[in-house]
């Protein structure tokens, strides 16, 4: 598993603030010399004792510290929610990356196999071609051998034919009588 984002980099900053610690005193906007002592919930502002006496004495009040703590807790809750969302998003991203990696590995593997098959097929083709060439060569050799044999035989036949013609022309009785046996010897030599 390889993280796209490291979760440790995304952490709540509000966690660092101690909720129980004192918040800085605030000067009243209307009475510059006065410090605010309460928070008026009705008006949603900080108020000093003079302002309370003058305007806010019937309003709903709350301790500044308590309001601040509530606000901080609210912010913390929001930040936690955001953090959870980011966490889930990162998990999803990592899962997607992992799936993509697996897919990519699978494709790579298949391509390698195809390439291997291709190479095997290629060498098989070369081997068959080589065999075919060798076979053709041997066949050609056999044919030329046969051809020279036939040529030789043809020469022999021509020779016999010539002999027969000569004997016939000579009108020599003895030769004609002896010719049959000598020709028979030659024929038997030819048909070996
Ligand atoms: Zn005031
Ligand atoms: Zn008020």
UniProtKB/TrEMBL annotation:
It comes from the Eukaryota. Keywords: Coiled coil, Metal-binding, Zinc, Zinc-finger. This is B box-type domain-containing protein. Residues 23-64 form the B box-type domain. Residues 126-153 form a coiled coil. The keyword Coiled coil applies. Transmembrane segments: none annotated. GO terms for molecular function: zinc ion binding.
């Amino acid at each position: 598993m390889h993280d796209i984002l490291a979760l440790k980099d995304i952490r709540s900053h509000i966690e660092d603030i101690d909720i129980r610690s004192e918040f800085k005193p605030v000067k009243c906007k209307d009475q510059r010399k006065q410090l605010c002592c309460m928070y008026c919930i009705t008006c949603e502002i900080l108020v000093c004792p003079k302002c309370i006496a003058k305007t806010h004495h019937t309003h709903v009040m709350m301790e500044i510290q308590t309001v601040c703590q509530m606000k901080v807790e609210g912010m913390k809750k929001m930040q936690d929610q955001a953090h959870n969302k980011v966490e889930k998003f990162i998990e999803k991203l990592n899962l997607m990356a992992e799936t993509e990696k697996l897919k990519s590995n699978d494709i790579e593997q298949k391509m390698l196999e195809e390439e291997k098959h291709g190479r095997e097929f290629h060498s098989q083709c070369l081997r068959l071609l080589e065999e075919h060439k060798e076979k053709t060569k041997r066949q050609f050799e056999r044919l030329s051998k046969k051809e020279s044999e036939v040529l030789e035989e043809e020469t022999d036949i021509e020779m016999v034919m010539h002999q027969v013609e000569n004997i016939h022309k000579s009108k020599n009785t003895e030769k004609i009588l002896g010719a049959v046996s000598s020709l028979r010897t030659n024929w038997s030599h030819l048909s070996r």
